[in-house]
Amino acid sequence: MADEVGGLVWSVMVGDCKYWVYVMGTIFLLLDPVIGTTDAKDVFALKAMYTSLNSAPQLTGWSASGGDPCDHSWKGIKCSGSSVTQIQLSGLELTGSMGNQLSSLISVIYFDLSNNKLQGDIPYQLPPNSQHINLSRNSFSGAVPYSISQMVDLKYLDLAHNHLNGQLSDMFGQLQKLKTLDLSFNGLSGGLPHSFGSLSMLDTLYLQSNQITGPVDVLTSLPLDHLNLENNHFSGWVPDELKKIKDVKISGNSWSSTPAPPPPHASQSAPPSKPIRRHNTSASSRGYRKSGTEKKNMLVMVVTITVVIGVALTIGILAALFSRGSSHRHRLDEGTMNTRQFTPLASQEINEFKTMESSSSIHVKTLHVSPSLGLKPPPSDRYKSFNESDFLNKINSRITRAPGPVNATKYSLAELQMASGNFGRDHLVGEGTLGRVFKAKYVDGKVFAVKVLDLPVLRGDNSEVFMEAVSEISRLHHQNITEFLGYCSERDQNLLVYEYLRNGSLHQFLHLSDDYGKPLTWNTRIKIALGTARALEYLHEVCSPSVIHKNIKSANILLDNELNPHISDCGLSAFYEDLSHNLGVGYMAPECTTAAGYTLKSDVYSFGVVMLELLTGRKSFDSSKSRSEQSLVRWATPQLHDIDALTKMVDPALRGLYPAKSLSRFADVIALCVQSEPEFRPPMSEVVQNLVRLVQRSSMKRTPADELDASRKTSDADQSEYPYQ
Predict the structure, then answer these.
(1) What domains does the chain contain, in order, with CATH numbers?
(2) Is the peptide bond preceding residue 545 cis, with omega within 30 degrees of 0?
(3) Which terminus in the chain has less CB density within 10 A, N or C?
(4) What would the pLDDT profile of 159-168 be if each residue is shown by its tens digit?
């Protein structure tokens, strides 16, 4: 009996064991695609990359649904532990793009997709910790992405043999480890950025076959062994330091044929008024001792005068205090304490202000008492001192602004008049807050947009004010900001020259009912929102000091041939005197009752209104509608979290062709941006992240509706006009 019971128990135990083995095995089989050798973020990024590369069959082992890159040996992928460290996909005839998840590949140090057929812009974010990047011999267009400026470990960067264009941004200041930089055989223009001078480890620089202009003096301090500047538009003289490089090629440029001027240090070493004497050793010694004695006498005299003045001032102050009585002394102390409570300036700016007051010869380049310096304005009036306005006016009146270097072309008034038909009515393409915009077409086919500024502050002899603005504008470079090409300041005329974008403004696409104003698809609307957000992120969080736009609206978002957004009028906020007039109706944040009330978060609010326009197809303010629906924000905000109401709000032109989840997430971002309290609005970097996640989660595959956009993209021969606002 005991044996039978024991056998029964044993069979039950064995049966249970088999059952649990079966269950656990099933669980692990189900989890195998998720729980693998490779880090989940790397797997997600590579799957997105595979899809963007058109699921190329030559990428053996790759999959958009399952698999494990490290454990299953995906082609071109090398790992260390659970992290992907190298991506080598050169010469595989790959097409498409690289996807928008590359920033998740934080362990990748070697990234090579050279010699393929990739197109479009280089992604804004590349693997952030890369040491070696090679994207040469593709068909990339657009600008060199500014995010490269943060890749401090980068040693090798090759973007040669593409179709990159525009001006190089001043992005190289932190790339202290960069040894090789190859940007040859592209269409880059403008001058060399000043931050090139910070590339202290650079030994190889190839810039041949571009359209880069200006002098090359910024390269003289670099430890170069290989330099190729051939076939550009460089001018000036070739510095002696560059001629000594063992492998240097400089032909095909516009070098000056006249003798080069002496180097600056030669004239500075011996001032003309006091030439250095070199008669004999004893004379030199006597001269040295004499100069030391003079210095001592001068020091004694300065100290004596300072002490006398200090004593006299002390006596005068004490006498004044005693004569006014104790009650006034009490009021003086209160006033002093009240002034100390007012702290709109950072400590560094306060010290600069004190230094400036002590010496009238010191010029502070830029000292803005505004949130563009990263300062948050006092949340309520109780933090303001009684004389805040007077104090700010006093600071601003004492500042002497010294314009920085201008990295842009100077055009003559005569050539711009000739190209624009003497600014005739038939060349007028728009009239906005700051002036009128004309189309200027040169005989070689180049077309520019010329903004003729008409502002009271620039009338008369105020060229310094204009040049300061030009200096600031010339430093702003981003693929989603209208490219600034040059300027003209002659005969009391102040003009700004920009790239000409034939596809018009977002305002036209959304609100004009003619044939040119066909509806934008949902995917394109998200792309426009994300590009605009990235431009604002650059202005707010990359530029130092931060740049507030102050006039974000759909009319100032221009679209290129691929319907990518470009924000116009960046860097011109100093010219806005009356915000209520300058900002489009419906875009102004509640706190913007005065110029001082405008902050970075006010730009965020205006951007939220633009997103509402993209969602609903309505104008920011429409007086033709009923009173409750005239203001887009007031009408739409209460409905953003109601899915039924949200569906009814969507632009009817979309004809229901949008993913419901994408619509809801888009509305969530809008709700964050248009909050009435500025402190609750997110920074633009957070907005960008939210929109990127929206794109990642949404099905952004091409739909039949996207064909509507394809017909909207103009060719170079299209001469359509558009109004600048």
Answers:
(1) 40-257 (3.80.10.10), 389-500 (3.30.200.20), 503-725 (1.10.510.10)
(2) yes
(3) N
(4) 999 999 888 8
